Amino acid sequence: MRQWMKKCMAGVIALVMTAGTLTACEAYIPQTSGTDNASGAAVSKGEKKGQESGKKEEKKAGKTASLKYEAGGKYSDLIDLDMQSARAFYVVYRYRYASYCHIFQITPDGRKMKKTGIKSVADISLVSVDRDWIYYGIGRKIYRVPIVEKKKSESLDIEKKECVVKNCKVDAAFVDDQKLYYMTEENITASKKMVKEDIQIHCLNLVTGEERLCPKKILNSEDCEGYESGQEIECYPSYYITENYIYYMDFYPNKLYQLDKDTLELSVIDALEPEECEYGDYSLEIAENGAYIWYIKIVGEGKNEAYEICRYDVKEQRKQVVCTEEECLEVICKQENVNIKDIDYVDIEDIVHFDEDKLYIEYEVGPIINKKMYEYRTGVIVYSLSAGQMKTLPELCKYYRKHSCDVGGNEIESEVFMEGYLEKEQQFLLCVETGEAGEYDSWYAIYDMASKKIKKISDKKGYKLEKKIDKRFIKQGGTVKY
User: Fold this and answer.
1) Spatial separation of the C-alpha atoms in residues 194 and 217, rounded to whole Å
2) Which of 202, 86, 58 is nearest to 142 (CA)?
């Protein structure tokens, strides 16, 4: 599945929908007594002792208890696995043409969905869910509501709603390890061309109520065209959470920031793209254990813009440029049997798979003039860190070329899509679309990494494997946020 499709999919899964008016914001009073590991709710000494045993069992099973996700339910596609309590999933949803949107509860099998009692006509953002609390935002405020367990279900105790933050960028807030991280804006200034602001990162301990500020601030800016005095600068940063760090991006100018969760020290790892970027976009993937980051950035400006493939070692705090665009093009042009001077357009931003040693990238280059037709070539290249070299996957590149063609006066169109990587099988799942005049047919194929062979498979099997890839991507929502 292409990277931009993943990001769109993540946005749909998150379902940040509209909502709004609730009762007045109450003062936040931190719970200072003993707490369990999953929430800020106060517990007695006797309860705490019993919970310690449960925590040990939970730790054996994994970092957090997880509900089983079933793709076949009517409401399964609405589920974000990161928004789960001990017994249900939660989502913000508005029926078409309805005045209110609600926070709904969805059963683990995805078959039943019911209202929780939280509704509004303004914007609601679901910030976080754990076994004891639901955190959500309305406007610039963040609230939390306790979850009450019943025999085989649970409900929300609306009367005990608390306001934990009165002024922040709700869409940039999240909860990690009983700490709420959020951002505020300061010192907004406007010139004839640019609007600039400082972004402050806050860390609120939901158990003790202690709040810390990041000493450094992030400078964010945008074009002044259309800006009205006093209005906010749009900013919806992406973030990756690991054991010791939080990584932020999607500011302007766009940089990759690293926040130390212990000290709140903020550092800039790298600039992801220049201020005046004419084409392309950065791409970034982080290992599940947070040990390293693969990313593709853009350097230079105007006609000199080019991609660089980089790797950041978190433990050593070291950045490494492993391959340049020119080095990639040399390999691609040799595979496609074209002259590098004939290449005008380059796209090597789509990371389709990665592990600790290798990075697989889907590329597109062109235009290549062939029989008076403009032709774009696509394929997959792989960089090996241990070998220190870039190479193509020849069989896969030939398959792309065989089943891809531009319109170019031809009524028949054909294109190959990379749906994703099957970890256990060590295979890439491909989908080929072909047709004419808006009527398209498609089929699936798999590329086996061991045998280097490509085999066409049935639609039924292809659809099943595609759902498997989608399901794995959804599950990554617990550690990766877009």
Assistant:
1) 18
2) 202
Q: What is the pLDDT along the chain (482 residues), one digit of tens a residue?
A: 333 333 333 333 333 333 333 333 443 444 332 233 333 333 333 333 333 333 333 332 223 457 877 777 899 888 888 899 999 999 998 888 888 889 999 999 999 999 999 998 888 999 999 999 999 999 999 999 999 998 888 999 999 999 999 999 999 999 999 999 999 998 888 888 888 899 999 999 999 999 999 999 999 988 887 777 767 788 889 999 999 999 999 998 899 999 999 999 999 999 999 877 766 678 999 998 889 999 999 998 888 889 999 999 999 999 999 999 999 999 999 999 888 888 888 999 899 999 989 999 999 998 777 656 677 889 999 999 999 999 999 999 999 988 886 544 455 578 898 999 998 899 999 999 887 656 778 899 999 999 999 999 999 999 989 888 876 665 544 333 33
Element spanning 361, H or E: strand 358-370
For 159-188, give one letter per residue: b (16+ CB within 10 A) or e: eebbbbbeebbbbbbbbeebbbbbbbbeeb
Type of residue at 197: E
Q: Which residue has the tokens 């950035």?
A: 297
What is the length of the chain? 482
| Token pair of 312 as six digits | 């950041």
Q: Based on DSSP, count helices (H) and strands (E) in the chain, helices before strands.
A: 5, 30
User: Residue 445 CA to chain centroid, in angstroms?
Assistant: 27
Strand order in the sheet with 245-249: 266-271, 255-260, 245-249, 238-241, 480-481
DSSP bridge partners of 138: 124, 141
Edge-first strand order for the sheet with 283-286 is 283-286, 292-299, 306-313, 318-324
Handedness of CA 75, 77, 83, 88 (dihedral sign): positive
Q: What are phi and psi of 332, to 5 degrees?
A: -65, -45
SS3 121: coil
